[in-house]
Specification:
The structure holds two protein chains of two kinds. Chain A contains two helices and eight strands. By secondary structure, chain A is mainly beta. The chains are: A mainly beta, B alpha/beta.
């Protein structure tokens, strides 16, 4: 499954350009895009929305035992980030000193290689964040 | 809905079964359960089985059919249910509903996982599937990492300490010393936990439940009939289940598990009991932080109080509410698909006053709590003693 091309390219809009959506009825932003607004159901109106590229760290961890495909970068930081429109996402935090990675720290989006699992297969790219 | 009771229980030893296969484990648990029930194999009308990732662990799917075949019970209907680490609890709940609805009078329900056939790395990938593949695993989040994110949020908001987390593991290892079926027979100290290798900060190796092989099975029967068959049937007084977003980032709160809270509320109402009526609970401590969040979500302690309550010994044997007398997932072991059923079996032992050295004195009502993933599924059951034949 790792290295499967359709699994990667299908996600380009969200992973390459942080594209989610927003319910115009209740004003909630969703990332990734949701097929239906859980608050408004059928009365909601979902429109595409580009997510802000800045946010702050809600919680974080340093992963010392990474999964297959992440051996070369272990240990690395994972965080849940709340973007400026209050949508949240899980991401790696890179290019930032350990002492800067704190709850509340301001972060911004960068574009990076995510994992590299197969010599013959495609390389997965997507978003990571760094401390601003 | 009709009242439903457990009339038989069978458990394998939990641990590393190098000599034994998946099918041998579930067969042992199933055969023991039927033998202890007072009914015969021919009386079983349907089978429900829980297994999380048999395809990834042993390359075998179609577990429902496999179980019926192994137990020699063809042609009864046999169905596998999957809800990650809550597969066992969800299987129990579906079996319960099948009897409560009147569709069947007697059913068998089992749970099984054989996790040691693959490398630790492959096991981690299989278990990772309990989280969100596209928005969590893809970015390098391991399963311990997801719980580490919850732990850090809880520590920040409520001042929960790493030592308090460690105390859950220490207590559960201590309880497991008195459980002959447990994987670990080794007491550990807070210092041992604190000095064990960091897995995903702040969680260390000894904050994590182990990789385990094992199986568990129970026989359910409509309670009227159960009274005629069994000396002391254990009534399933409540069975509830709730869900939350698959990914942590979608949750309203990272310091509580809403699915646990919702399922618990439904269960207390269904069983007509209050939180303080519960004499003991088997909760889903796949990581130490999971136990802290469970005892808060189930209402035993206030929000943010779980760490301090653990530190004060309130969850120890003889405490205010003994949590995980069996040793929990941490001490007893966590063969994921079997866990939800094994929790119910501990409740049966306790309510039969047959838990020997780990017996909760005077236990009349017990609760079990089984979680799938990082909290996207929660299953709660409440068990009561029922007067049987004398």
């Amino acid at each position: 499954m790792n290295g499967s091309l359709p699994l990667i390219w299908r996600k380009f809009p969200e992973r390459y350009s942080l594209e989610g959506n927003k319910c115009e009825a209740c004003g909630t932003s969703f990332f990734p895009a949701r097929p239906i607004c859980p608050n408004c159901r059928r009365k909601g109106r979902l429109v595409p929305e580009s997510m802000p590229r800045q946010g702050r760290i809600i919680t974080w961890t340093e992963v010392f035992s990474g999964p297959v495909g992440f051996e070369h970068e272990t240990p690395y930081f994972i965080a849940i980030v709340e973007l400026e429109n209050r949508a949240r996402l899980l991401t790696q935090i890179v290019d930032s000193g350990k002492e800067k990675i704190k709850i509340g720290a301001r972060v911004e989006k960068v574009f990076r290689k995510i994992s590299d699992t197969d010599h013959e297969g495609p390389i997965a790219y997507g978003y990571k964040f760094k401390v601003a | 809905m009709r009242s439903v009771s457990i009339i038989g229980a069978g458990l394998t030893k939990f641990g590393e079964h190098w000599e034994r296969s998946f099918r041998e484990l579930i067969a042992e648990a199933g055969i023991k359960a039927i033998a202890s029930s007072g009914v015969e194999g021919k009386d079983i009308e349907a089978i429900y089985g829980g297994s999380m990732a048999s395809g990834r662990f042993i390359g075998q799917e179609h577990i429902g059919a496999l179980i019926a075949d192994q137990l020699g019970l063809n042609p009864v209907a046999s169905t596998r249910l999957e809800a990650a680490c809550a597969s066992g609890g969800v299987a129990l709940r579906n079996a319960y509903m099948a009897v409560a609805s009147g569709q069947y009078d007697i059913v068998a329900v089992g749970g099984v996982e054989k996790m040691t056939e693959v490398s630790t790395e492959d096991a981690a990938v299989a278990l990772g599937g309990a989280g969100d593949q596209e928005t969590e695993l893809f970015f390098g989040a391991t399963f311990p990492a997801l719980y580490a994110l919850l732990a850090r949020a809880h520590m920040k908001e409520y001042g929960t300490t790493e030592e308090q987390l460690a105390m859950c593991a220490v207590k559960n290892h201590k309880n497991a010393m008195n459980n002959p079926n447990a994987q670990f027979k080794r007491e550990i100290s807070v210092k041992d936990v604190m000095e064990s290798g960091m897995v995903a900060s702040p969680l260390k190796l000894l904050d994590c439940s182990p990789i385990t092989d094992g199986a568990a099975a129970v026989i359910l029967c409509e309670s009227g009939k159960a009274r005629e068959i069994s000396e002391m049937p254990i009534e399933i007084a409540a069975s509830s289940q709730a869900s939350d977003t698959l990914a942590l980032a979608g949750r309203k709160s990272l310091t509580e598990m809403n699915a646990t809270k919702v399922a618990a509320g439904i269960a207390y109402r269904q069983a007509c009991v209050k939180v303080k009526d519960i004499d003991f609970a088997e909760v889903h401590d796949c990581f130490t932080i999971a136990e802290i969040m469970a005892i808060e979500g189930l209402g035993f302690f206030g929000k943010g109080e779980g760490g301090r309550a653990t530190e004060r010994g309130k969850t120890a044997m003889g405490g205010e509410i003994p949590i995980n007398p069996s040793g929990g997932l941490k001490g007893k072991g966590h063969p994921v698909g079997a866990t939800g059923i094994a929790q119910a079996i501990e409740a049966v032992y306790q309510l039969h006053n047959a838990a020997e050295k780990r017996q909760v004195k005077g236990a009349k009502i017990g609760l079990t709590h089984n979680v799938g993933g990082s909290g996207a599924t929660a299953v709660v059951h409440i068990f009561k003693q029922l007067e049987g034949k004398r």
